[in-house]
Amino acid sequence: MLIPLTQEKLEELIPRIATADQYRYYWGKASDFLRRMLISVVAGVGVFILRLFVWEAIHPITFILGIIAGFYWLWSPVYLASRRNTEIRRYSYGGFWRGRVLDVFITDEVIGAEETVNKRGDLVIVENRERRLTLEVGDKTGFNTQLQVPLRRDHRLIRRGDLAEMLVLSNRPDLSRINMVSDIYIPDHKLWISDYPYVQKTSFMEVSRKLMRQQQRKRRPYRPSDPVWEN
Hints:
By secondary structure, the protein is of the alpha+beta class. The protein is built from six helices and eight strands; from the N terminus they run E-H-H-H-H-H-E-E-E-E-E-E-E-H. The protein is 38% helix and 29% strand. Helix 2 (20-27) crosses helix 5 (72-89), helix 3 runs antiparallel to helix 4 and helix 3 crosses helix 5.
């Protein structure tokens, strides 16, 4: 099932400014925070030194630059998330897609490599591997796509045949060619499958529940007590 969405609804589901989930994603681990803090300190010191050698007339500008540099550790996750949101918002058309889980499996993927020296002094390359979940979803029209994400404990609940929902983005009004997809929602287990949380989850689930109720009303047999129309 694919239902086109208005531009206003798409902008609600894919916000321009970072959401809390997106901010947490780019906040990262302790090492990421320390790296940002180091950049803030170095940039702040650089602005302070610059302030000593410039005209007093432009001190207000250097003061503002110092504040921006000093708080880089705080605002950079917002900037990175908002820039990434722009990638998916550049598509002019989108729709709400509902299908099924076709396949789900786990793989070991190489996510990086580093050089080190063993006890004999030989240079060796050590591969950093990560267990990842690959989820394939599709529908009766023949459309299917895969999403690969880091493995989490609750992913073990997913089974073939589970309902799957997501946003699809396209540059064509009829959505005949899908250019990008969002994170995937599994309503049977209330699970979000994503590497990056593109979707505003609360708004997305409201759309999902509304469409589910509409489908249930269509499938329900008519009863004499039912109203002829609804206001």
